[in-house]
Amino acid sequence: MKILVVGGGGREHAICWKLSKSPSVKKIYAAPGNAGIGTIAECVDLAIDDLAGLADCVEKNKIDLTVVGPELPLTLGIVDEFESRGLKIFGPSKEAALIEGSKAFAKEFMQKHHIPTASFRIFSEHFEALDFIKSASYPLVLKADGLAAGKGAVICKNVEEAGETVEKIMVQKVFGAAGLKLVVEEFMEGEEVTVMAFTDGKNIVPMVPSQDHKQIYEGDKGPNTGGMGAYAPANIITARLLKTVCEEILEPTVRGLASENRTYKGVLYCGLMVTGRGVKVLEYNCRFGDPETQVVLPLLETDLAEVFNNIADGYLNIDEIDWSEKSAVTVVLASEGYPGEYETNKAIEGLDSVKADTELVFHAGTRFEKGRFLTGGGRVLNATAFGEGIKAAITNVYQLVGKINFDGMYYRQDIGWRAQNRIGLY
Ligand SMILES: Nc1ncnc2c1ncn2[C@@H]1O[C@H](COP(=O)(O)OP(=O)(O)O)[C@@H](O)[C@H]1O
Ligand SMILES: [Mg+2]
């Protein structure tokens, strides 16, 4: 098989790495890829939203299967475009990708299909939203309806903050058309966790639960980022709780999508809040999470290319997917200043001393110049390691981090702290 992976971050590097282990994969292409992906795949210089260009590339190179990393091409309808041209692709159709593309749609979908989530109201007129927030209780969560690069959800402490947020999203339209509608949600208290699942639109196989660390500083302080690290399995989701998540969330979601004729062959990502009153959905994503994928896929023991191919053909064999018993942790190595301003083009040292297979370094924002890797983004690398249990995995990953260096390298030293605190509680 020849496979094209669309995207160019740490998530796509992890997907390409896993595919490179598959005996049935002859060649991997990535669009646009990155410097790390370039060591195992051929990078083609195409933008992720150039749907026609990507399809042309697949036809020209006789690529058998395309796998989509980011949400943008999915919400633009890449799956529909490819299938109309007879090209095989792994991902949800445009109509199904709406569960991520529109938060208003997702909330109404959950309500309709009795899937537990925070109570909400949807507004398309700013003065109605302003009126509502006056009598709401706080904190209150306000979200732009459409894609906003992870910046469209704001937790407001009081009516003043909520008013400013309505103004920004609906009047100034800082997220453009994504702010035509506003979702106002009840604030949920609890711990966040991610459960992703493979689905062919009928069957589902949950992946190992994982947990991201969104804030820039230790102890989950400071502004949100694209994710500073992750671990799996997330032990807050016990086997019993995972069964509940399957029955109350994953299965009704896939059934609901099918009942609305929204074809979903891909990865369903559920961002969950474990509250005192059960597990509720924070949001859906219509693809793999980043950085969760960097810890989940390394624990997959099944041939990923086969899984992708079978799902794209519409048939997921639920007995075929196996997971390692180990734990995995990934630590994001970022440029000093991120998520604000930062410098790039710093030489990265130590990559040669990484042990093959037990230590993995996925590239998120790097470039390759004159024989060496340079920093090229805010999140630069994802250092990933394993262990028998979370404690060992944490020790191993920080040993790996210690080998790597670049000028201004910043990382959180407490990735996995919640899991470590929980050891012994069960
Ligand atoms: N109803 C809620 N209650 C508490 N926290 C929330 C709620 N909705 C969102 N959040 C917080 O805001 C973050 C971003 O919201 P989310 O819906 O995931 O939007 P996006 O990832 O598209 O920015 C979540 O990860 C969570 O920390
Ligand atoms: Mg989110």
Q: If you had to describe this structure to a student in words, what would you say it looks like?
A:
The model has no long low-confidence stretch (mean pLDDT 97). It is globular and about 60 Å long. Among the domains are: 97 residues, Rossmann fold, CATH 3.40.50; 68 residues, ATP-grasp fold, A domain (Dna Ligase, domain 1). Strands 1, 2, 3, 4, 5, 10, 11, 16 and 17 form a nine-stranded mixed beta sheet that branches. Strands 12, 15, 18, 19, 22 and 23 form a six-stranded antiparallel beta sheet that branches. Strands 6-9-7-8 form a four-stranded antiparallel beta sheet, with helices on both faces. 30% of the residues lie in helices and 28% in strands. Strand 1, helix 1 and strand 2 form a beta-alpha-beta unit. With 426 residues, it is α+β, with helices and mostly antiparallel strands. Adenosine-5'-diphosphate binds next to strand 7, strand 8, strand 9 and strand 17.
How much of the residues is beta strand, in percent?
A: 25-35%
Would you tell me the overall average pLDDT?
A: 97
Helix-residue proportion: 25-40%
Low-confidence stretches: none
| Number of distinct helices | 13
Shape: globular
Biggest pleated sheet: 9 strands, mixed
Features:
426 residues; Rossmann fold; 13 helices; binds adenosine-5'-diphosphate; six-stranded antiparallel beta sheet; globular; binds magnesium ion; alpha+beta; nine-stranded mixed beta sheet; Dna Ligase, domain 1
